[in-house]
Design a protein that fits this description.
The complex is a heterodimer. Chain A is about 10% helix and about 35% strand. By secondary structure, chain A is mainly beta. In chain A, the strands form 5 sheets. Chain A has a 5-stranded antiparallel beta sheet, with no helix packed on it. In chain A, strands 13, 14, 15, 16 and 19 form a 5-stranded antiparallel beta sheet that branches. A 4-stranded mixed beta sheet of chain A has the order 8-4-3-18, with no helix packed on it. Chain B contains 5 helices and 51 strands. By secondary structure, chain B is mostly beta strands. In chain B, the strands form 11 sheets. Chain B has a 22-stranded antiparallel beta barrel. A 5-stranded mixed beta sheet of chain B has the order 9-16-17-12-13. In chain B, strands 1, 4, 7 and 8 form a 4-stranded mixed beta sheet that branches. Classes of the chains: A mainly beta, B mainly beta. Strand 5 (about 65) of chain A pairs antiparallel with strand 44 (about 695-700) of chain B.
Chain lengths: ~325, ~800
């Protein structure tokens, strides 16, 4: 039995309730159980994004599995994968290792595929079906700074294997005017992407939810602070990547995060995670899931240096 | 069709008027009160021995009987009180007769002369009504020892909840927002503290609770499913009384006293949770500023100006506060002023003016430390209302009720102020306003000693206006992943000073009772209810942050029609009451939500709504034992509640998320002796439906469920069962050798069962120390959540001076 406070934390705005009152009053618990799940025909699952960063671009194709399967998803091999931009230029993706990982390799390592403002169409032919997806590559602002200070870990930064004292880092970036810019924030600690479900950080303009209120602001404090889901030690490298995504892609991450955390008293009915991959034959039993994304990327990396730490954040 | 209905209604209403004109009659009227504290008794029976007829007191303890001239014997009975007999002479003028009756005494073990209570279960016209007195509620074993009115009514037939700890309750297949919860006539919008674990009603301040599930009389309106009518105590009019208690969650204290003996009195009752006080020494560093508490204050004052005029002023204020640097708080406040006026001994008026407000605040900076980086969001719903209610006691056979109400609403769905790095912005989902007008007339007619009819009609009109300079019209364009509801909104210019949409509805109400023997009756009822406001909630349990919204040009008022039929029988000198009821309910204009519905701070949320209809039906069995050392009840409900929503579940019927097939409750209380008493309750409840994905896919290292759009309730959670027990030890003395006190020991969930609240999939928790392989996705696992996963013992100390 794991005692947990998930019963309350469905809405992420509710996660901040001090666990204390709950431990005093509530004795909720979660047990892992076995469920009978139905057998299903596999769907095509697409996981790929093209960016304006020089170098290889990757699109992975896998088969969906029965719910709760624990083996790795099987790659979809021998597919034809190509991307066409709105000027008609074609980019071919190949699977050299024959594992379902399709790669566009530029002629020179400095060659860039994605261009801001351009629209890209993905076409996949796999296992007798044809799938397409369309996405526009949107603008991204630069990251202005990463600032850190020495502090105690707060409730959200505590955990097994995480330092109790260390450097708390935040990043600053400002959303350009115009409602509806969407972003994903990726955090790397010592070159490793932080990749648990609570590291899915997305922004609609400068705030976390879809509302026009955040337009043109500096990313609000809770988003800035998500650079530190745990504290850093001296000499740790902290990299923040800000990626533009489409609004539909924002919906994808929003719902994916919702489904991964869909627990407790305030759970919602399991909802469909949107996908921009469409089978040309809408009546086929082999439909698709996943996302084909396009992103402009800005990034900043710092190495934690005691001498450069600030005493207090300027907020 | 409608016209003919109206015509026949009018006929029915005035048919008995012809019977009024009879020989000269006189009226005896007055109040029935408790002789110890002066509280008016609700529903006490006043029976005329010679004529074998009678009446019952209204919610203020008033009765009126118009009888032919003569000498009569009145027999006054009420549950828990000794029978009282009074002679009255109606010779030349109307008589005012106030009656004080004596409580049955705590000495239940001794044989006391108890008046044979009039057999209300069988003889009263009302059906689908449950009254539970606070004394009984206080003896039910409670979670953490906190006496809880809302949890107690969940043990009644036809009442259920989406799960343990969920806010509110569901009545006969209706949603949580379809219950009109009245506190001294003012509506309360959120009946819970701590998300739903405790109700907002202080047990020391509540006098009477009545739940009306069907056959709802014409004087009530505004919600589709039920009325929970909670009446607060008036305050002891005879002497100072102090009640209090210390439990694990709340400390309680109430003071009531006469201001002018037998004329004016007050009660002030307060509760506060104090976990934060105890925890304070353990909160250091970042947590030192943590606040978490909930409290409520109930106050009431009444003044009996003279025989014909009484005024009441009552108020409630409650709040929950949680947070560290980020936090939120929410609460209800109500204020109601009432004037009871007896125009003549036959015409009784209660006028109520009330104010009610529910609001919440979400704040990223509770301590106001970072004015340049804040986010504050408030939302509220507010009412002002005036409502006169008349009762005209024409004859013992005919009681006419009529009245009306003007109810104003103001909705602030969301108003936010944000600042980021010094830049400030404000945002408001535009305020909406509405006025609900209603008028009703109803008559209760005792056609023969065995047959009674109650019939009436309520008319309501709702005018909605928006302060926004545009309004929206929904247009169907087709369901896609980007548009899960399938709707877009067209924008039209709006004049904020004009009514944007108006609705009006007739709501017929009908009850009939036919006695089929000495101790049995058959009752039937039909009611239509209209509801103009809606709680936007797409989570399993509704949250304190859900927004109440008005009917608009897009959102139509909810309508329910219910028919119910019941058989009522008492056994053995009314020791046992039983009833068997069946009901069928039809719901129109039900609201549901498309996938990813965005209900917060979103002026165009109407795009994400889906509409449809519902139906609910069931059988309810209730057996209650009233007398003896062992008392209690058993209720069993077999029910179904479903909805059919355009765009969900392929347009097919699906069960509501609070659909429960079987609900069995057994409540038992045993008085061993003067010192010790025991309580137990047992519940067995079928599981609610939930949805589970069919497949899983992988993106990056996230494994996620793949679900078809709009699937609802494809799997069911296993059944729930639980046993609670309690023991109460009464002490002769409280502190300083005065008053009385008691210890209450209870164990909730005695056999330590982990009852499932929900089942879901979530990413597997990585084992501590293991490193996820770079290319390997985190798999998902199925998890069963139990809100209360262990037995919970508790101790409470109560005292009274």
């Amino acid at each position: 039995m794991k005692t947990s406070f998930k019963n309350i934390n469905k809405k992420h705005i509710l996660t901040f309730i001090p666990s204390l009152i709950l431990s005093l009053t509530m004795m909720s618990c979660e047990d892992v159980i076995q469920l009978d799940v139905p057998k299903t025909d596999p769907y095509l699952v697409v996981d790929g994004s093209i960016t304006n960063v020089a170098g290889e671009q990757v699109i992975k194709l896998t088969k969906s599995q029965d719910l709760l399967t624990t083996s790795n998803a099987e790659g979809v091999k021998n597919a034809t994968v190509k991307v066409t931009d709105d000027l008609g230029k074609i980019y071919e993706f190949k699977d050299p290792k024959n594992i379902g990982k399709y790669v566009w390799t530029p002629a020179k390592v400095t060659d860039v595929m994605g261009v801001v403002g351009r629209t890209y169409t993905l076409e996949i032919s796999a296992e007798g079906e044809k799938y397409t997806a369309i996405s526009k590559l949107n603008r991204v602002p630069k990251i202005d700074s990463i600032v850190y200070k020495f502090d105690d870990a707060n409730v959200r930064q505590k955990g097994t294997g995480k330092p109790d004292k260390g450097y708390d880092a935040i990043f600053y970036a400002t959303d350009p005017k115009g409602v509806g810019d969407c972003y994903r924030v990726k955090i790397y600690k010592n070159d490793t992407l932080k990749s648990s479900a609570d590291n899915i950080v997305i922004a609609y303009d400068a705030i976390g939810n879809k509302s026009p209120i955040g337009d043109g602001l500096t990313f609000i404090r809770p988003l800035r602070r998500l650079a530190s889901t745990e504290l850093y030690r001296e000499n740790d490298k902290v990299k923040v990547e800000l990626l533009s995504i489409t609004e539909a892609h924002f919906d994808f991450w929003l719902q994916l995060r919702q489904e991964l955390n869909n627990a407790g008293l305030f759970a919602r009915p399991a909802a469909r995670i949107p996908s921009n991959i469409n089978n040309v034959n809408a009546n086929s039993s082999k439909q698709a899931s996943g996302w084909f994304g396009t992103s402009a990327v800005s990034m900043m990396e710092v190495k934690i240096d005691k001498a450069k730490a600030v005493k207090e954040f300027n907020e | 069709m409608l016209k003919s209905i109206k015509k026949s209604l009018a006929l029915l209403l005035f048919l008995p008027l012809g019977l009024f004109a009879q020989s000269e009659k006189l009226t005896v009227s007055g109040y029935v009160k408790d002789n110890k504290n002066g509280e008016g008794l609700i529903g006490a029976s006043v029976f005329v021995k010679e004529l074998l007829t009678g009446t019952t007191t209204n919610t203020y303890g008033f009765y009126s009987l118009t009888l032919p001239k003569g000498n009569y014997t009145l027999i006054i009975t009420s549950v828990g009180y000794r029978k009282s007999i009074r002679d009255v002479k109606l010779n030349d003028k109307n008589v005012t007769l106030n009656l004080e009756v004596q409580e049955d005494g705590q000495e239940l073990a001794e044989v006391v002369v108890t008046g044979k209570r009039e057999d209300e279960n069988v003889k009263a016209i009302e059906m689908s009504v449950n009254k539970v007195d606070m004394k009984t509620i206080k003896k039910i074993p409670a979670l953490l020892g906190e006496v809880d009115l809302v949890r107690a009514i969940q043990l009644l037939p036809g009442v259920s909840t989406v799960g343990e700890g969920a806010t509110g309750f569901n009545v006969r297949g209706g949603a949580v927002d379809q219950n009109l919860v009245l506190m001294d006539e003012a509506p309360v919008y959120n009946s819970s503290h701590l998300f739903g674990f405790f109700s907002i009603f202080n047990p020391d301040a509540v006098k009477d609770v009545k739940l009306i599930k069907g056959g709802i009389p014409a004087q009530y309106g505004g919600r589709a499913s039920s009325i929970l009518d909670v009446r607060m105590k008036e305050g002891n009019a005879k002497q100072l009384e102090i009640n209090g208690g210390i439990g694990l969650i709340f400390s309680r204290l109430s003071i009531e006293a006469p201001i002018v003996k037998d004329k004016a009195s007050f009660i002030v009752a307060a509760r506060r949770s104090y976990a934060d006080v105890l925890a304070k020494p353990f909160l250091t560093g970042n947590n030192a500023n943590t606040v978490f508490n909930f409290y409520d204050l109930t106050a009431k004052i009444n003044y009996n100006i003279n025989q014909n005029n009484t005024v009441f002023l009552s108020g409630y204020f409650g709040r929950d506060v949680f947070g560290n640097e980020f936090g939120f708080n929410w609460g209800n406040s109500t204020l109601s002023a009432r004037w009871n006026h007896v125009f003549s001994s036959k015409l009784f008026l209660n006028s109520t003016a009330f104010y009610s407000n529910y609001d919440y605040l979400l704040d990223s900076d509770l301590n106001n430390k970072r004015p340049n980086n804040q986010f504050r969001w408030t939302s509220n719903i507010r009412n002002w209302s005036f409502k006169p209610d008349f009762t005209y006691y024409i004859t013992p056979e005919n009681t006419l009720t009529f009245g009306g109400q003007v109810l104003t609403y103001s909705f602030t769905p969301g108003s936010a102020n944000a600042s980021s790095n010094g830049t400030k912005v404000a945002f408001g989902a535009p305020a909406k306003d509405a006025i609900e007008y209603s008028a009703y007339v109803g008559n209760e007619w005792k056609v023969t000693p065995k047959l009674s009819l109650q019939y009436g009609v309520r008319f309501s009109k709702y005018d909605y206006s928006s302060s926004e300079d545009v309004y929206y019209i929904r247009r169907f364009v087709g369901i896609t992943d980007a548009r899960p509801s399938g709707y877009e909104l067209d924008t039209k210019p709006n004049n904020p000073n004009e009514i944007l949409q108006s609705y009006s509805n007739f709501e017929p109400r009908f009850n009939a009772k036919l006695e089929t023997g000495e101790n049995s009756s058959i009752k039937a009822s039909y009611n239509r209810m209209t509801q103009y406001i809606h709680l936007m909630s797409n989570t399993a349990a509704s949250t304190p942050l859900d927004v109440w919204t008005s009917s608009t040009n897009n959102i139509k008022p909810q309508l329910t029609d219910q028919v119910a039929l019941g058989y009522f029988k008492n056994f053995g000198d009314n020791d046992y009451e039983t009833s068997l009821e069946v009901y069928y309910k039809d719901f129109q204009n039900q609201i549901d939500y498309a996938d990813r519905a965005n209900l917060f701070l979103n002026p165009t949320f109407e795009k994400d709504l889906l509409f449809g209809k519902g139906r609910a039906y069931g059988v309810e069995l209730y057996i209650k034992k009233n007398k003896g050392k062992l008392t209690g009840w058993t209720s069993y409900t077999l029910a179904r509640t479903e909805r059919q929503i355009e765009g969900l579940n392929k347009g097919e019927w699906f069960p509501n998320r609070f659909d429960r097939t079987h609900t069995l409750s057994v409540v038992a209380q045993y008085e061993l002796n003067k010192k010790w008493s025991f309580g137990a309750n047992f519940a067995y409840i079928s599981g609610v439906p939930y949805s589970l994905a069919e497949r899983q896919g992988t993106v990056e290292n996230f494994t996620f469920g793949i679900t078809e759009s709009g699937v609802r309730g494809n799997v069911r959670i296993p059944a729930y069962n639980r046993l609670d027990v309690s023991a109460t030890k009464k002490n002769k003395k409280a502190l300083f050798g005065k008053g009385e006190s008691e210890w209450v020991f209870s164990i909730y969930n005695l056999y330590n069962r982990r009852n499932p609240f929900s089942i879901y999939t979530q990413p597997q928790t990585a084992e501590v120390g293991s490193v996820q392989e770079a290319e390997q996705a985190v798999k998902s696992e199925a998890v069963r959540l139990s809100i209360i996963g262990s037995l919970i013992p508790s101790v409470t100390y109560n005292f009274k001076f």
